[in-house]
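Lay summary. Proteins are chains of building blocks that fold into shapes, and those shapes determine what they do. In this project we predict the shape from the chain. Here is one chain we studied, written as its sequence of building blocks.
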Amino acid sequence: MITPTIYESGRLVVACLSGVVTMREIESYFYWLVDNFDTRISPGFSQLIYADNLQTIDVALKDFHRLSQLNATVGRKRGSFDSAIVVPDIRYYWMAKLHKTLSRNADINTRIFRDIDEAFHWLGYRNPLEVPIASSVNE
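And here is the predicted shape, written in a compact code that computers can read:
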């Protein structure tokens, strides 16, 4: 499941991944961002993605290429933005790294963190959540 919340008058979107996350849910979140852009979500917004009680992310390599294609086409409506991905479980680091690499073509400036407060700091916002802190991944 992906649960998005909008903060800072539409300038910050925080998405929580929990349970089992599938490509269908990732696509739904993608279209939610596109559909809410320029109404509830401000141009130049920032995004933070983190996990809470995540069981697994059930996606294949082809799914990442599909998401990259969506970002480069339909996603262009959103324009450029910063995206912080918090990866406290190293098992999912490769997914975050692949997403970061493929997002460059869609003008998404992505950075990977292990510490949620560092991720919010990089985005320029205070942490509005109460989420446990982990150690940092340096890139």
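What the prediction tells us: The longest helix spans residues 23-36.
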